[in-house]
């Protein structure tokens, strides 16, 4: 899916792992009306719908720095550690991630398995 | 000492000054988070938590040995030839944050050596920035979590699987039926699927206003407000619609009104009609209209959404439209049939026996442990049944302390209704006893047990008695299933049916659609104004009985909305545009003519909402006493008027204090808010139809300071409203065990209770009354007070006129007190309407507690025989509703002087030769004592009516232009008329008897037409210009002479020969010198045209009145008369003609 073709009337972000879709209003590193805030990656963003009063942004997801797959920021789909990694890539290169992260993921996997069984 | 070190030592994170210094760096006016905002407050509390966390972590040590080990591993991997991710060697949680905050200011402070300047140094700045990054990351995760949850929920809806199929069907077919049961998500999702598929200008109708608002909010939220103002709603009082709106939720009635203006509905591309299975009158009609509209709009897409009830009916109606059926999401429900044993069956007049219901509560307590949650929903047919069972259940609940018993029906106060959504404390179940309102309209989560009595009370209309009837019926199988389904929304449930399975099988498959049950007046009127042709041949989805249509047409004719050919009259076409009942619309129009708009607006609004007087509180002596000053024995509309006026005054003085004021009087304030809104809408309607002058130089203008103050206040109010809206939803409170016990028995204690309940959530500091806020935003209190003051303490003359207007509006809804009422007990007063004998006054009416005011005063009556009581004080009642429950009840009544009111409003008045005997509408007979006086009264009434009608027509004709300067009807003429009407109403002193005709009398009422021969033989006296515009012709059915559309002279069976000379008596005209023998008709004719000399002159002189004066008093009085004797055309008034003819008569003799 091409997300950054800004010409399409309805710009939709879709996570290629979990299928979450949402319209997005901005793609880039500098969310509008945010002054000092800069993102460390190019992101799909929308106006935060959960605080309708204020002009807040919400990052939906971005492309995996390794495989460029489009993934959402949900914990099951991607991980940011200086760069964005999709979960597939994280698992492939798990050994290169710090211990803290490895332990965390192992714990999460365990608990989700427990929930399934 | 260096300043840096001293600062470092004195830096205190808890000090507000220190924090304020950092605010200067990070949270400036244009920053993402601004000092003083909610986010800002949240940041600092996050900061505290973050610091605590950091300290704890630092104390436990970060384990450097592990770090080394990891680095070692990393080096190993690199050797193995895999991709190098190039990750930093040391783990830091901040690497997991994809946000950075950087400005020159921050950079500078962080790079500073820490010398020379004040404020936070590099360390503090860096700490704060790190905390800010974590805070931003935290907020992002929180919001994204909500989004993900929302998407998961959307995906899990049964309808989600069908989204592309739905879009595809809509693309390919003009009409699609989507059928799915409650909980499948169709109402919220289908509009969104269409929006995201690129459809726009979508309208989605709902049967209920409240659903329009909540759906618009929900869909807007679910589509992430991405559409912002593009999702809106439009209901009676308010709209959020803008030009950008792509999806609009609106009521069925409103869409119909829009079709009246925009016959092809060009403003929409897609129409979704939701809940079609509910078969509301408007919805059935809307479908019919849309069906024919589709022919002219092949591009229009129509989607019908329904529960899985009778789907084929809808599909077939639209040329076998494709149906998409979506399974509902219901948990399994166990059905238990528990028919009520015969010894516990209530006989017709008895109260319900509560034992079968109590057994179920007991059974639940025995079978299910209290820690297993799940509430009970009990369906009964009506309010009386609910209070019987509630009482019994409450005793049980008080004893076991395991239940909270709550009633639910539409006549409860809003606050009481709202309680069913609160949760019960652990170990206690709610027992909600409801009418069928909980079947579809109100959805309560957490219900596990349903008890279904199988009964429903439904309104039906009896066209013969002209009466609404509230009767108990068995429900349909569809309703039964719907009720059952309420037990399985949140988990597996149980449904107890208090009838046998064989009963169930014998139920009708579907409920009777509304169109088969109700009066069709408004519908027919609307059809006429939409030019839909003969209502009998309109293709309804399920045609109403022809008798119903016929009854409505007749009624509309009686009301003057349709003429004798069934075409719209000018008042009729105006009424069709007003979204109110015909009688109420008529009142508004009539009120606009006279200077009585303000009170009429209030009364019309009061008639359109439920009574603000809560039934239960009126039995409370304290409330009754407090209400006493509001009561008016003129009639219920005046009580309502007083109440509204007093309330507005309290609002002006005490604002939110009105809540207490209402509570003390047992008034439901919500209804008064509805009234004030409706009143405002009526006013706008009248203005837009040019029936009301715009307010000159609004007193609200004020000087600049006042305006500014008002603006500031409005801003504050808007803020309050927003805050309230944010709080909404998170407000469910936990019920107290005692909750049910207080409710019904003594509403007085409601005061105390509400106070208690509110204290605990007074966290926000002030007790905000959102209704008061909305009221202030919508209305200018001082303007309202001014408007209301006009109708306060109306002088008796104005009151008399207002009563007449109400009576004319409500006509033919009139009732006659029974002649023997003064000998009966107060509670046994009987009344009769034309079509229904023996009706009673509803106990809430003022005439139920004060019936003497309707009795004919003893000292004034003169017994004229066994059955005849003459008096000048007879009265009749005009009423708003006649509804039969256990008895036929009249409600909202006003009393009017019988003779005067009948002569001024009745559609049919028949007289005998000397006009001393009159029959009104074929059922009321009035016998006047003196023929002389009778004639005078009749003549006055005819003149007044003609004038009134003339002015009304003039008002209606000029109204569409809406130019207030060219008021066709001048004020002075109207004032003159109202004065004359009032004089007629108040000062007609003539003794008469008033009674109903017997069936036998009605049969032989008229003499019938005379044979042609007889007519031609006699010279017909010149009767034509009895009064302006009238033509007297023999009446083909009744006989006699039809003088006006409503008055037929000399047609009653006891009439003497029409042309008999013996009817002539000598008479002197009080206005001119005329003295001669005249027949009654000739006299009336003269009186109609002969005005007191002074009056006539005054009229002529007034230049303002020229228009009307010329048309009604001068030119129309003279006409061309051809005298056969002189053989000459003479331009004479009718009096002059008479004189002229007499002249010949005497000269020939
Ligand atoms: Zn995802
Ligand atoms: Zn990847």
UniProtKB/TrEMBL annotation, chain A:
Transmembrane segments: none annotated. It comes from the Eukaryota. The lineage of its organism: Eukaryota, Metazoa, Chordata, Craniata, Vertebrata. It comes from Scomber scombrus (Atlantic mackerel). This is Cysteine-rich DPF motif domain-containing protein 1. Residues 13-105 form the Cysteine-rich DPF motif domain. Pfam families: C6_DPF. InterPro entries: CDPF1, CDPF1_dom. Belongs to the CDPF1 family.
UniProtKB/TrEMBL annotation, chain B:
One of its GO terms (molecular function) is hydrolase activity. It comes from Scomber scombrus (Atlantic mackerel). Pfam families: HA2_C, Helicase_C, OB_NTP_bind, WHD_HA2, zf-C2H2_DHX34. The keyword tRNA processing does not apply. This is Probable ATP-dependent RNA helicase DHX34. Keywords: ATP-binding, Helicase, Hydrolase, Nucleotide-binding. PROSITE patterns: HELICASE_ATP_BIND_1, HELICASE_CTER. Residues 57-85, 715-768, 1087-1112 are annotated as: Disordered. Residues 363-531 form the Helicase C-terminal domain. Residues 167-327 form the Helicase ATP-binding domain. Residues 65-85, 715-739, 753-762, 1098-1108 have a biased composition (Basic and acidic residues).
């Amino acid at each position: 899916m091409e997300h950054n073709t800004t010409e399409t009337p309805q710009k939709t972000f879709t996570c290629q792992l979990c299928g979450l879709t949402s319209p997005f209003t901005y793609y880039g590193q500098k969310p509008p009306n945010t002054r000092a805030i800069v993102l460390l990656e190019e992101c799909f963003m929308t106006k935060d719908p959960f605080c309708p009063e204020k002009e807040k942004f919400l990052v939906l997801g971005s492309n995996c720095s390794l495989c460029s797959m489009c993934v959402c920021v949900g914990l099951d789909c991607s991980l940011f550690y200086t760069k964005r990694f999709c979960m597939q890539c994280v698992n492939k290169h798990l050994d290169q991630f710090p211990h803290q992260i490895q332990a965390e993921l192992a714990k999460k996997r365990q608990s989700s398995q427990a929930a399934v069984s | 000492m260096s300043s840096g070190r001293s600062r470092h030592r004195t830096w205190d994170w808890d000090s507000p000054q220190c924090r304020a210094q950092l605010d200067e760096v990070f949270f400036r006016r244009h920053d993402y988070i601004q000092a003083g905002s909610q986010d800002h407050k949240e940041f600092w509390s996050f900061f505290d938590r973050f610091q605590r966390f950091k300290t704890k972590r630092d104390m436990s040590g970060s384990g450097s040995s592990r770090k080394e080990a990891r680095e070692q591993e990393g080096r190993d991997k690199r050797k193995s030839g895999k991709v190098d991710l190039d990750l930093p060697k040391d783990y830091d949680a901040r690497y997991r944050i994809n946000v950075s905050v950087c400005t020159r200011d921050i950079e500078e402070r962080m790079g500073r050596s820490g010398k020379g300047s004040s404020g936070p140094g590099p360390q503090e700045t860096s700490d704060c920035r790190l905390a800010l990054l974590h805070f931003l990351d935290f907020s992002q995760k929180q919001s994204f979590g909500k989004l993900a949850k929302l998407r998961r929920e959307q995906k899990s809806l049964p309808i989600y699987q069908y989204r592309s199929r739905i879009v595809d069907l809509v693309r390919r077919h003009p009409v699609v039926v989507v059928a799915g049961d409650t909980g499948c998500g169709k109402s919220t999702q289908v509009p969104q699927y269409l929006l995201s598929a690129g459809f726009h200008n979508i309208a989605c109708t709902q049967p209920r206003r409240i659903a329009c608002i909540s759906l618009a909010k929900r869909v807007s939220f679910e589509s992430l407000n991405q559409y912002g103002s593009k999702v809106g709603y439009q209901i009676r009082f308010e709209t959020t619609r803008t030009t950008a709106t792509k999806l609009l939720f609106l009521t069925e009635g409103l869409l119909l009104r829009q079709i009246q203006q925009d016959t092809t509905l060009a403003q929409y591309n897609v129409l979704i009609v939701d809940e079609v299975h509910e078969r509301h009158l408007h919805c059935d009609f809307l479908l019919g209209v849309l069906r024919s509209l589709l022919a002219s709009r092949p591009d229009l897409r129509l989607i019908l959404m329904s529960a899985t009830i009778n789907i084929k009916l809808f599909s077939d109606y639209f040329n076998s439209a494709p149906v998409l059926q979506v399974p509902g999401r219901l948990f399994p429900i166990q059905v238990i049939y528990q028919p009520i044993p015969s010894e516990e069956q209530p006989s017709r007049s008895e109260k319900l026996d509560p034992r079968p219901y109590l057994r179920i509560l007991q059974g639940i307590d025995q079978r299910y442990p209290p820690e297993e949650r799940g509430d009970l929903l009990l369906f009964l047919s009506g309010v009386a049944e609910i209070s019987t069972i509630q009482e019994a259940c409450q005793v049980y609940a008080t004893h076991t302390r395991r239940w909270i018993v709550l009633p639910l029906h539409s006549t409860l106060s809003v606050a009481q209704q709202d309680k069913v959504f609160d949760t019960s404390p652990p170990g206690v179940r709610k027992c909600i006893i409801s009418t069928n309102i909980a079947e579809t309209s109100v959805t309560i989560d957490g219900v596990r047990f349903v008890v279904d009595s199988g009964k429903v009370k439904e309104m039906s209309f009896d066209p013969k008695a002209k009466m609404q009837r509230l009767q108990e019926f068995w429900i349909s199988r569809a309703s039964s299933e719907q009720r059952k389904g309420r037990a399985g929304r949140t988990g597996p449930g149980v449904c107890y049916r208090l009838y046998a399975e064989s009963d169930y099988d014998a139920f009708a498959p579907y409920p009777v659609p509304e169109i088969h049950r109700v009066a069709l007046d408004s519908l027919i009127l609307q059809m006429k104004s939409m030019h839909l042709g003969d209502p009998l041949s309109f293709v309804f989805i399920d045609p109403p009985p022809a008798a119903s249509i016929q009854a409505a047409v007749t009624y509309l004719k009686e009301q003057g909305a349709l003429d004798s050919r069934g075409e719209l009259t000018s008042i009729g076409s105006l009424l069709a545009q007003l979204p109110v009942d015909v009688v109420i619309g008529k009142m508004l129009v009539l009120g606009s003519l006279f200077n009585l708009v303000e009170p009429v607006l209030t009364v019309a609004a009061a008639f359109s909402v439920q009574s603000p007087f809560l039934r239960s509180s009126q039995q409370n002596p304290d409330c009754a006493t407090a209400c006493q000053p509001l009561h008016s024995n003129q009639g219920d509309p005046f009580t309502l008027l007083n109440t509204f006026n007093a309330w507005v005054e309290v609002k002006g003085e005490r604002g939110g204090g009105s809540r207490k004021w209402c509570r003390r009087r047992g008034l439901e304030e919500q209804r008064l808010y509805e009234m004030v809104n409706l009143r405002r809408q009526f006013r706008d309607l009248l203005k837009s139809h040019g029936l009301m002058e715009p307010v000159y130089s609004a007193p609200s203008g004020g000087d600049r300071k006042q305006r500014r103050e008002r603006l500031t206040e409005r801003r504050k109010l808007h803020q309050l409203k927003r805050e309230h809206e944010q709080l909404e939803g998170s407000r469910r409170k936990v019920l107290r065990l005692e909750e049910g016990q207080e409710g019904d028995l003594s509403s007085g204690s409601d005061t105390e209770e509400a106070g208690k309940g509110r204290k605990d959530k007074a966290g926000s500091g002030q007790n905000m009354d959102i209704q008061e806020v909305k009221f202030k935003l919508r209305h200018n209190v001082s303007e309202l007070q001014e408007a209301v003051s006009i109708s306060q303490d109306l002088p008796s003359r104005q009151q008399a006129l207002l009563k007449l207007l109400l009576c004319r509006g409500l006509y033919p809804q009139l009732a006659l007190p029974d002649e023997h009422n003064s000998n009966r007990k107060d509670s046994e007063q009987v009344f009769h309407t034309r079509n229904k004998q023996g009706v009673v006054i509803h106990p809430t009416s003022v005439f139920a507690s004060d019936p003497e005011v309707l009795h004919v005063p003893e000292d004034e009556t003169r017994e004229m025989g066994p059955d005849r009581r003459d008096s000048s004080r007879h009265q009749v009642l005009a009423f708003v509703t006649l509804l039969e429950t256990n008895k036929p009840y009249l409600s909202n009544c006003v009393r009017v002087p019988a003779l005067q009111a009948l002569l001024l409003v009745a559609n049919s008045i028949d007289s005998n030769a000397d006009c001393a005997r009159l029959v009104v509408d074929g059922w009321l007979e009035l016998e006047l004592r003196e023929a002389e006086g009778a004639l005078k009264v009749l003549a006055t009434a005819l003149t007044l009516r003609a004038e009134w009608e003339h002015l009304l027509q003039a008002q209606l004709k000029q109204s569409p232009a809406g130019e207030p300067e060219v008021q066709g009807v001048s004020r002075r003429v109207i004032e003159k008329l109202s004065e004359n009407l009032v004089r007629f109403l108040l000062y007609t002193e003539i003794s008469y008897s008033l009674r109903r005709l017997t069936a036998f009398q009605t049969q032989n009422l008229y003499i019938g037409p005379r044979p042609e021969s007889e007519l031609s033989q006699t010279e017909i006296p010149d009767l034509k210009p009895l009064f302006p515009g009238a033509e007297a012709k023999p009446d083909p059915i009744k006989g006699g002479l039809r003088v006006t559309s409503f008055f037929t002279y000399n047609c009653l069976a006891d009439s003497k020969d029409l042309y008999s000379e013996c009817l002539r008596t000598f008479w002197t005209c009080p206005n001119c010198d005329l003295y001669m023998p005249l027949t009654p008709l000739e006299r009336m004719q003269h009186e109609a045209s002969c005005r007191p000399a002074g009056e006539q002159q005054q009229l002529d002189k007034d230049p303002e009145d020229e228009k009307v004066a010329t048309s009604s008093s001068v030119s129309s009085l003279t006409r061309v008369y051809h005298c056969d004797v002189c053989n000459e055309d003479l331009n004479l008034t009718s009096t002059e003609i008479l004189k002229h003819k007499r002249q010949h008569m005497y000269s020939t003799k």
